[in-house]
Every structure is written in C-alpha cells, then in structure tokens.
Amino acid sequence: MEKDKYSKELEVAVRVVHLACALCIRVQEGLVSASGDHVKSKDDDSPVTVADWSVQATVSWLLSDIFGSQNVSIVAEEDTHAISKADSEGFLAAVVNTASVTQLGAPLEDIGYLDPVDGTLGFVRGDQYAVALALIEDGQVVLGVLGCPNYPMKREWLNYQHQYSQTMSALSLRSTDVWEKGCVLYARRGSGKAWVQPLICEDKMLEWPNYARLIQVSSIDDPALATLCEPVEKANSNHSFTAGLAHSVGLRKKPLHVYSMVKYAAIARGDAEIFMKFAKSGYKEKIWDHAAGVVIIEEAGGVVTDAGGCPLDFSRGVYLEGLDRGIIACSGVTLHEKIVGAVYASWDSSNL
Ligand SMILES: Nc1ncnc2c1ncn2[C@@H]1O[C@H](COP(=O)(O)OS(=O)(=O)O)[C@@H](OP(=O)(O)O)[C@H]1O
Ligand SMILES: [Mg+2]
C-alpha cells in the first residue's frame, strides 16, 4: 500500500474513537452506580445499552460530517430499527435519527465497520469493553482502531478479571498520569507499525499524534511462559476444549478471561501471547468483532488465523464466511504452529 494512503482517515478514526470512549466512560459510570432500564436485550438476548446506540450515531455522524456522507459508509453492529420501535420518544430516538448508519446489505468495498461497544456484557458489568472501528478495502482490513477505556498501560489490570470497577474504586485511584487510564490502539496495513495512545483526559484536546508509542507483540515463544486469554463466557467459547489444547502444548499459566477485543489489544501490546475462541458450531463470527484487532496484531508482529491456519476472510460480507472451527491469534509463529497442530491432533476426539 502506498506510504501515506489512508493517513487522514486514520487520524480522524483515532480522534473519533477517543470521543466515543469518553462517551462510553460516562455511560458506564452511570450504569455501575445506578440501576434502571439502561440495558436492553437484543434479539439474541445479549445486552445493548444507550452507549451502543450513541457511539454508533456519534461515529457515523462525525465521519459523514468530515468526509461527506457520499464518501463514507459505515456498517455498524446495532440495529437502530429495534430501538426506534422500542423508544419512539426522547433522547434515544434523537440519537437514532441523527445516525447515518448503513445497515447490512451495503456494498462491501471501502467501508468502515464499527462495533460501538464490543463486549457489552463486560461494559454493563463495569469491566473491560472496546470501541472498534476498521476500514475494509477490497476485502482487506486496511485500518484498525481499538479504544479500550478500562485497559491502562499497566499490564496488571488484565488480571483483575471480572472485578475491574470494584478494584478501581477500592483503590480510589486518583492518578494524574495519563497512562493510568485507558488506551487507544491503532494500525495501518503494511506500515509494520502499531501504536498505542493514552485516552484523552476530560478537557484536553488530542494533539495528534501526542503520546503515541509503538507497540510490539511479546517475544515469548516458550509455551510454559505464555499467557492465554479467552472470552469470559463459556457460551461464547469452549473453555474445556481450549484447556485441553493449552495442556497439550505445554501452557502452564492460568488463562485470563477477558471481555471484548481487549484480548486482541493484550496480544498486540505484548501483555499476553495467545488468544483463542471456539464458538459453538453454527455460530457465525461477525467481521466487526475481529477486523480492527486483526490488523493491529498483525502490524505489531503477531499472527491471526482460523483454527486451520488460514487468514480470516473479510471479503464476503458481514460474517467471517468459511471460518475453520475457531480463531487463533498468537504473538509469533512458533506458538501459533503449536496451537494449530494441537487443534488438528485433538479435534476428532473433541465432540465439537
Ligand atoms: N453464541 C456466541 N458465540 C460466540 N460469540 C458470540 C455469541 N453471541 C455473541 N457473540 C459475539 O461475541 C462478542 C463478545 O465476545 P467476547 O470475546 O467479549 O465474549 S465474552 O463476553 O468475553 O464471553 C459479542 O460482541 P458484542 O455483542 O459486541 O458484545 C458478540 O458479537
Ligand atoms: Mg462485538
């Protein structure tokens, strides 16, 4: 890809994700301290909140405003029709009406894909979640931006599984260090570089590309030293199958259960070495749940494939069509080959 191609788009996307994160932080603080009907259920019974729709609307509106609505198409996760029916008045309706979201069925070239709040379960539980924005050109993810508002630069935070907000408030952290808050990761395909920035603080403007640091995957290739992260919910990924794989390749550490694409961020930042997801047979992975994370890991030096070792196919619509069994992301080829080999060795006896 030519050197500066998409540099303007990347800058805008990063700024927009910073804003979206600021919005999510406000909503999450409200959710954690209050009860009420802020959380609704989607058709598949997974939760959706005002943050999902507001981020979707804000991102779509900002991108159309900057690039012109003819030049930008956004396919976003949430079905705005659902909320129009459910909440025909007030703020939510206003949010929906301002969104210029192209829903499923849009043309597939040069499209921005948005997961406004990935890991909504983590979000409503006061834990990890991500805002994910990716640009796909001719079936290739060319830009990826991942906002991780609860993932500060210190790796230890990943370990406070399920208790992020409780731990934060118990410690009553009032640090002025920007790196103590969350982060935004981003990468452009072919640059060989991936970056992290601290989340902008309340009243500060983002001086592009202030504070950005290069990130790289971990150099650990000994399974005994490697850390695996996987989805929290057993319904989303088969924990006993991944435990068997982990055992057979010689992983020793307890796996980290982390909500959302923060798992991709952890691999790209070098805080963990392996991410695996084996959804139930019949579940079709959606591209916005992976696109941004894949390009960021790859540009940071890692490998992401399906369980057969093939690259994920972003060219066939909103689903990762043809995905072989599951997703495996690793910091390097040595670990990756071992895991893919272990899948081949154990699949037939796994009853999956
Ligand atoms: N049944 C099933 N199997 C596999 N995956 C599913 C399933 N249902 C939903 N999803 C998608 O998984 C996204 C959440 O993935 P996570 O890795 O965050 O899972 S977990 O909450 O940590 O268990 C989640 O993303 P969000 O809806 O953005 O939260 C879904 O797109
Ligand atoms: Mg998602």
Write the layout of secondary structure elements.
Layout: H1 7-33, E1 39-41, E2 47-49, H2 50-67, E3 74-76, H3 80-86, H4 90-98, E4 111-118, H5 120-124, E5 130-137, E6 140-148, H6 164-171, E7 183-188, E8 194-198, E9 213-215, E10 228-230, H7 239-249, E11 256-257, H8 262-269, E12 274-277, H9 291-299, E13 303-306, E14 327-330, H10 333-346
Helix pairs in contact: 1-2, 2-4, 7-10, 8-9
Bound molecules: 3'-phosphate-adenosine-5'-phosphate sulfate (PPS) and magnesium ion (MG).
Distinctive features:
five-stranded mixed sheet; binds 3'-phosphate-adenosine-5'-phosphate sulfate; Fructose-1,6-Bisphosphatase, Chain A, domain 1; binds magnesium ion; D-Maltodextrin-Binding Protein, domain 2; 352 residues
Bound molecules: 3'-phosphate-adenosine-5'-phosphate sulfate, magnesium ion
Largest sheet: 7 strands, mixed
The value of Rg in angstroms is 19 Å
Count of the separate structural domains: 2
User: CATH topology of the largest domain, what is it called?
Assistant: Fructose-1,6-Bisphosphatase, Chain A, domain 1
**Spatial gap, N to C terminus:** 40 Å
Give unreliable regions as ranges.
Answer: 93-109
Count the beta strands: 14
Q: Order of SSEs, N→C?
A: HEEHEHHEHEEHEEEEHEHEHEEH
Would you identify the CATH H-level superfamily of the largest domain? Fructose-1,6-Bisphosphatase, subunit A, domain 1
Count of alpha/pi helices = 10
Please give the order of strands in the largest beta sheet.
3-4-5-6-7-8-9
CATH class of the largest domain: Alpha Beta
Second CATH tier, the architecture of the largest domain: 2-Layer Sandwich
Mean pLDDT: 82
Amount of beta strand: 15-25%
Structural class: alpha+beta
Helix content: 25-40%
Q: In one word, what is the shape?
A: globular
